[in-house]
Every structure is written in structure tokens, then in C-alpha cells.
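Practice set, problem 2.
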Amino acid sequence: MIKVLPPLKPHIPEPPAGKVWHIAPAGHCLWLDDYEYYDQLGRDPLQQAKLWTLPSGKKRVDKLQEILERYPKQKHRRRILCEAARRGDVNLVRCLVETGLRVHPSTDPDQGQDSTQNESESIPDVDEPTVTPVHAAANQGHLSCVKVFIEEAKVEADARDELGCTPLIVAYERPEVVRYLLGQGAEPMIRAIGKEDRATTPSAQYTGPSILDYAASSGKVEVVKMIMEHPSFQSSTDWFTPSIIQRAARGGVEILTLFLEKGGYPLPNSDGKFQVESLSEEQKKVVFDATPVAADQGDLESLKLLLCYNKKAGHDNLSTADIPDEWHKKFIYGLYNSMTTNSPRKFEFLNSIGLKEHESMSLDKLPDGQKINVQRLLEKAVEAGSIECTNLMIEKYGANPDKHRIPPGIRPLFIGALRDTAEMLRYLLENHDIDIHFGNGRHASGPTALWGAINLKSLDSIMVLLQHGGPVDRVDEELRNVKQPTRAILRGTWPSTGSRPMVFLQTEEHAKEYTEWTRQVWQNQNPRYVRLELDVDDNEWLRGLQLRKENGELRETGNGARELNEQEGDSLGSQGAHDVRNLMPPMPTVMDREAELKEDDDLIPEFRPYAIAPGYHDRLTGNPEVY
């Protein structure tokens, strides 16, 4: 059975003993920020020592003790502690606490400043309010680390970070941490710094969100109930604000019902009817403002509950006349978000109203006869891996699973490959007639779904696409009939002018020169290949791999046709500044995923030089990734 593995780790050269690397033309911007802590590659002390690659806790502690000998300053040790807390390494956390380090910094930016601190070249050892280890541990749910901070380091349970948040507030998604902190005396009614709060505002008067606000928005029923059972909540009325109902409208009907009941709102009688007339004017305003929030981000039951307070509309047989103008956009957003959350019932309910989406909702024009862009809805469902909604869009509303809009010029299969929704790809390929050769983006010979999956390391999707034909541009003949466990390289090439992005399937030996080259380019953490482990069981799909169609077969004609490649587009000339095809990128991608792949958290960050010399990025000559 095929295994798809990420690329080999980069080879980061080590300088001779007692020396450091100098990076030309410019070192990493982090080095410029603190040259004592970071090296010119941007690595922190833990990355420089490759501590996170060590397999055992004892070895990591031993390595940490070596590191601490070179980093005596409190601010540097606190950064190391914060990283250990974020990762939940309790052995490292305890080791650092036992050094006597003051775990929590002062959140006063002026505290500890020394007027003589710039007389030497040394980095001032002053507190950094942004580095709060206990908050890092609480937010990530690392209870064992939180216990060390509270019980051994004696950090206050209500210690605040620079935003005024306590560990309890940032732990709103971690019930076990919330329970522990409440048991340690954490105050649940504390608020963070609000937008209107000034620097002189006392912390007790902050107006920002509390843990209750965050837990309500995220649907954490267990956390909300814990807070509501606390004596501080039961003796306070400050928690009830108009915004808390809006937040609860996002979190699900159970949470919304809890807050409405606690806030004195009438709930359905035994016959299911509401005493709407008992609502105050203020309550009516709160419900009115919360209803579009539920339509946009809440579940169907929350929306219906809030609509029942609207005496005119209720929630049965709604029409466009029942929807105020202020609600319109949020209701349209709700149609699209139904695809993201795989909520076909909510979609059907909202769609039955008959609202028409606004012009700025989609890049392409709304098709004739449609009030909502069905094809784009399908793309949203595919992106989220929402198979029920995908099936609904195709079977009931006529969306085409093998069609692209102009713009953006990408098909559902490509979208699913970029987001690694592997089961969605399997559904599309096994239930619909999908062209796996289609070129996505600006040009007709653009990248295939397989190329996009390789680029963004969508490992599960790569496996599905290979098992359904690929396609590839070249395949080593030795891989057409595997007789024993074999390693291979699946790589994508970046197109040069006049060419197209290609996919090569090569034996490990054949691709060795290429993979070794990529390991030397430590500035690029996302080389365009993956490793495959193959066995005799893979021969069936290996023999079924398709070679990608020639350019002549990919060429498009008719209205909205794309040029074959960049060179052809240049020769034909521009169609004008308002040509919608100009909105289509030649190599579509997902920027947040690209950003994740640009660094190796264990070894080295994304390389961001503090200055860039002319021509620094012009490094294509001799680059084997360009074909």
C-alpha cells in the first residue's frame, strides 16, 4: 500500500567550532532584533541546538542545561520557557522553573528600563510583556505545565498578559484547564482590555471580553456551564451585555438558550409558543441584532429560535419581505457558511427565503436565472470537505463538479487537492466524470490537481489522485512494475516561459541529485516534491497512471477561453485592463498553507532578510525546479 511522505529535512550547515555564520547580503530580521538570541539564519537557541529533534525528555533536558550556560539573561530564558510551555514539554518547563527564573513578566513596558542600558553593546535584560509562558500553556491545553507554573513557580492564577487576558480567558477552549484554574481561585468575571479602554484604565474596569464571551462564541457548553455555576457569576449582572447574546448566537442553540434564560428572555411555552409581547424594547433590539449573526455563523436551531421572537416573521414561510435590509448580507453569508459547516438543512432553510446575493459576493457574474451562485457554493463545500452539501449542490441544484468559473479558473478537484480534503476527492472521482488533466488558473496548460497537491504537501490527496490516474508528465519505466519495496520521488516543476508545470515520477536514485540540491537550499522549506514508498500491491494503479494530455488537447476555444500559456498570452496581446481573466493567478495556491510550509518549527523559521539586495530573488538560473 502506497505511503506518501513529506520531503527530507533541509541540511543546515554547521559553522566551525567557535564561529557563527554570516549571511550575505543580509541576515534574518530576527537576528537584527536580538543578535544575542537569534543567529543570522533566524534560529532561536533551541533550533540552533536541534533540541526538538531529540527523542527523549532526558536528552532534551540535558541539552537545555547546556544552552542555559550560554543564555543567562532572564528575558532569553523566559522566551525559551514560553516555547517549551507552548509545546507542552513539562520536563523542560520544570527545569527552567527550578533555575529560579521569574516566570511571569511585568506587563508594564517601562518597568525595568535602565537609562544606562545602551552604554554597552549588550542587549538590555528587560521584561517583554508579550512573552507569558503560563498563557501559552493554558491556551494550548497543557495542564501539567500550568500546574507547574501555578503550584511550583507561584504564578498568580489571574496573571495578565499585555492584552489584559488571564490564563483562564485564553483557556476558554480547554475545559480541563478551566476547571483547574477555577479551583486555584481564578476569577471568571475578569475582562480583558477593551477597544475603548485607555492606558490609564484600571484593570478592574476593563471592558473587553471575558472567558464567558469567548466560550459562548466557540460553542464550549461545558466551559459556559462551569462559569455559570461559579459564585462570582451568580452574584454578578455585569456579564449580561448585548454582545453576549450575539456571541451565543454563534455557539449553538444550547448555549443561546442558556443565555436567553439567564437574561430573563421568555422561552417557548409547553405548546411551543412565545410570549413575544413581554419583551422589552431593549430585549427586542438585542434579538434583532443577534438574528443575522445566527444566520451567518450559528446553527439552524439558533436562527429559528431568534426568529420566533420576531412577531411579524416567525420562522415559517419566510419571504424576502420579512428580511430587513440590515440582515440581507448576513443571511447570504449564512448560505455560503452552510457549505463550510456541512449544514444542508440550514442552507435549504435560508435558500427558501429567496434572497439574491449582492454583486460583490463572487468574482464572476451571477449566472442568469440564479439568485445565488450555485457553482461557487459547490466550490465552498468542496474546500471544506462537506460531502453532503457537495452532493446537494450537484444533484438538486445542478452545480457541475467538473466546471470552472471565469474568474478564478479553478475546478473543484483542484480546490479539494489544495485543502487536502482527500475523501472529497475520492467522492468526486468515483461518482462523477472528472477531467484530471485540466489546467487550473490563468492558462489552459496550468497546474493539475496533482501538481497543486504536491506543492502544498496534501499527502492524503496525492495518494487518492495517484490511485485514480494522476496524471503525470513522465514516469520511470522501472516504476511501472514494482517487484519489491521501492522508494520513489514525485516532483513538480515550475514552468519557465513557454512551458507548463509538470509532474515527474522517478525512482529515488534517479531523483537523488535533485533531492540533494533541495536539501542544500535551506531558505526554501517547501521543495516541490514528496517521497513515495511503494510495494507490489501498488502495481495496479501504477500501470493505470495516465500521461498528461499534450498541449493541443488542452487548448481552449470559444467565449472565455484561456491562452495555452504565458508565452502565447504575450504574443496575442492583452484583451484590455478590464478583462476578467486578469484576475486569475497563473499558479493558484492557498496562501495560509504556503506560509505554514515556509518554515520548519523544529529547525529553522522562514528566511526573512532584514534587507534585500537588487536581484536577490532572481535565482532561477540553474534551479532544477524550473523546467
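Problem 2, part (b): a different protein.
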Amino acid sequence: MRNSRNRAAAAALAVTLLACGGTPATQPPGASAPPVSGASPVSSAPTASDAPAQSEAPESVAPESVAPESDAPPSGEPGATLARVAIGDNTFSPAALEVSVDDEVVWRHNGENPHTVTFADDGPDSGNLANGETYRLTFEEAGEFSYVCAIHSQMQGTVTVSE
């Protein structure tokens, strides 16, 4: 009896996990990966096992240990600012963001379902973010960079970086 309950629970878990998956989203035509530094998924209480895995990323993207969010400009870049994007249940807010070169963008997940911040052309990818987790990128070059949630393709955003 106990063995059949374990199998039933395992089957239910497998179905639930498969239902939450899905096909990775595609990027809008013409989208490209942003040149960035300091790509770093962090949570409010980071541990090695909590940090989402980084997919293959360009050499210019390097994970780093990041202190909890603050409103202070990123260290090391005089005049740089911090911009925020809230990740809700199936939305990025704001969906369109304008920043300057060397500004840092922080995406904070406030929703219930897991989401990603995934850029085109094998660009930076946050991996799955849970409620309360953040993802940070510093944009090093001007351009328009589109991103999506790889789990929910209707979630799309754009970061426009100017000199």
C-alpha cells in the first residue's frame, strides 16, 4: 500500500513538472544578445544550491557574487545608475526600459510562477527565477535588446541602451 502511494505521488509530481515546462520561447526577429557584464542571478538569501544555473553565455558575461539590492549606483562605474524591472505573474514591468551604457538593470521576481529573463542569440539567461529572486545585468554597449521569459513566450521586454 505504501509503495503504491509513493508511486502515485511520484507520478503526480512528474505530471505537474511537465505541465509547468513548455517549449522555450523564440526571440523576436532581429533580436540580438546584449554585451553585458556582471550577469548574476541572486536571491534574498543566496546559496550555491539556490542560484539558477547559467547556460552557455558569451565570454563577456561573468557570474559574480552580488550583495542584496540597493538604490546605490553599481560600484566601479562613476555615474552609472540602477534600473529596476518587476517580474509579475506573466508580465515584465516596465516592458520597455531605457538606460545608458554602463547602467545596471535588476529584474526582481514578485510573482508565483517561475520565470526567466532570456536574451536572443545565446545571450544572457537568468535561468528559472522563483519569487523573491533577482537577476542583474550591466549593459556595456548602446543598442536595443529584446528578451523574453523562456517559459511564457507572451512575456516580452526590451532594454534600449543609449550613449
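Answer key, part (b): The CA atoms of residues 4 and 10 lie 10 Å apart. The two ends are 67 Å apart (CA to CA).
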